[in-house]
Specification:
Blueprint (H helix, E strand, L loop, with lengths): L1 E9 L2 E8 L5 H6 L7 E5 L1 H16 L5 E5 L12 H10 L7 E6 L1 H13 L5 E6 L2 H7 L4 E6 L2 E8 L5 E4 L8 H18 L1 H8 L3 H5 L3 H20 L14 H10 L7 H20 L3 H13 L10 H9 L4 E2 L2 E9 L2 E9 H12 L7
Parallel strand pairs: 2-9, 3-4, 3-5, 5-6
Antiparallel strand pairs: 1-2, 7-8, 10-11, 11-12
Helix pairs in contact: 5-6, 5-9, 6-7, 6-9, 6-11, 10-11, 10-13, 11-12, 11-14
The protein binds adenosine-5'-diphosphate and zinc ion.
Catalytic activity: 7-phospho-2-dehydro-3-deoxy-D-arabino-heptonate = 3-dehydroquinate + phosphate
GO molecular function, one term: nucleotide binding
Main location: cytoplasm
Length: about 375
């Protein structure tokens, strides 16, 4: 059953992000694509192990052939070295320009399969079936696809939009706990950037409300998709405004990097980074103490980590490698207030050091 749908519009493209109860209905969506020679499902065995039978049921009732390509799970396998094997499998399985790729998984699968689609024979159509909260609210919206190099994440990629996104809500019932943090941190980010009703709703919600699959989950997915697509519509290629979506990510990426992507999930690191951004906003833009308190309370109720445990110098060193670097200051996305973001704000090292030290010693938070 279709629960809700949002249209993502941009320069020369328009596609729906649909939230469905389960996979019943995917068949109709796939059948609506014209002139398809074969479907290529890109997924991993973890997800397939749980959901393959439902997927097969949908695909088998279509009269179009399909083939499943399994890739290894995890960010480290979203690597440029993994592409060749997949391209070869496509060739061997007769993928022509009318083939359609179905990305069936989380953000890693979506980025990787999307990149394959954007390059195979100069681009073939693809659709996304996100199975994680992060992919539903963030990575499946906006058309960024990429693979990693040894020397950096998402260093090779494209802007490539799917035909549609079909999010099956039931997949979230098996999502590991830490994967929930990933999606929740991005939802919180959207709420900080937008303020208003989404923020109010999150403030009266705890983590267990999300796990119990309450209406708030659907509301937050819908609002997040709406918010992110409105930003992408205004600035598809990150010439300006889209940069606000990096809120919390300068510090988040540095923490992920310092801990070699092993200690925290992306969402946990971003969650700490969001708090750094708010504290810097207070120090630089006069963001209020009351707002900080509201954010702390809300993020604690969502069981997102706030306290930094890593060495401050190492974090700052990694920030230096960040794209937003310029001279002796670093550029951040900060907030004047909830709903009032500013991007490209220069912040001196002394201020960053001060805030990170404060956040590290923040025992009161217990996180
Ligand atoms: P992927 O794109 O490979 O799913 P992600 O990093 O986005 O990778 O997902 C994180 C992990 O959660 C992966 O190990 C993935 O296999 C697993 N996963 C994704 N969706 C689900 C789900 N609905 N239920 C259980 N595990 C899932
Ligand atoms: Zn993120």
């Amino acid at each position: 059953m279709k629960l809700q749908s949002r249209q993502v519009n941009g320069n020369g493209f328009s596609y729906p992000v649909e939230l469905h109860e389960d996979l019943n209905g995917l068949k109709e969506k796939l059948a609506s694509l014209k002139d398809v020679s074969k479907f290529f499902i890109i997924t991993n065995r973890q997800i397939a192990g749980i959901y393959e039978k439902y997927l097969f049921a949908e695909l088998k009732s279509l009269s179009i052939p399909f083939h499943i390509i399994y890739v290894k799970p995890g960010e480290k396998n979203k690597h440029i070295d993994r592409l060749k094997k997949v391209y070869h499998e496509l060739v061997k399985e007769d993928a022509d320009r009318k083939a359609v790729i179905v990305a069936f998984g989380g953000g890693v699968i979506g980025d990787f399969a999307g990149f394959v689609a954007s390059t195979y024979q100069r681009g073939i159509r693809f659709v996304q079936v996100p199975t994680t909260l992060l992919a539903c609210v963030d990575s499946s919206v906006g058309g960024k696809v990429a693979v990693n190099l040894d020397l950096g994440k998402n260093m090779v990629g494209a802007f490539f939009q799917p035909e549609f996104v079909y999010a099956p809500l039931f997949a979230l019932s098996t999502l590991p706990r830490r994967e929930w943090s990933c999606g929740l941190a991005e939802i919180v980010k959207h709420a900080f950037l937008e303020g208003g009703e989404l923020l109010n709703r999150l403030e009266s919600t705890s983590r267990k409300d999300f796990h119990s699959g309450a209406e708030v989950l659907r509301y937050c997915i819908d609002e997040s998709v709406r918010f992110k697509s409105s930003v992408v519509e205004q600035d598809e290629r990150e010439g300006g405004l889209r940069a606000i979506l990096n809120l919390g990510h300068t510090t988040g990426h540095a923490i992920e990097s310092v801990t070699k992507y092993a200690k925290y999930s992306h969402g946990e690191a971003v969650s700490m980074g969001l708090m750094t951004a708010l504290l810097l906003s207070k120090s630089v833009l006069g963001f209020s103490e009351t707002n900080i308190e509201r954010a702390v309370k809300m993020m604690k109720a969502l069981e997102l980590p706030l306290k930094i445990n890593e060495k401050i110098n190492e974090i700052i060193e990694h920030m230096d490698h960040d794209k937003k670097k310029e001279g002796s200051t670093l550029k951040f996305v900060l907030l004047e207030d909830f709903g009032k973001p500013k991007f490209g704000v220069s912040v001196g090292r002394d201020k960053i050091l001060e805030v990170l030290k404060f956040q590290k010693g923040w025992d009161l938070l217990g996180r």
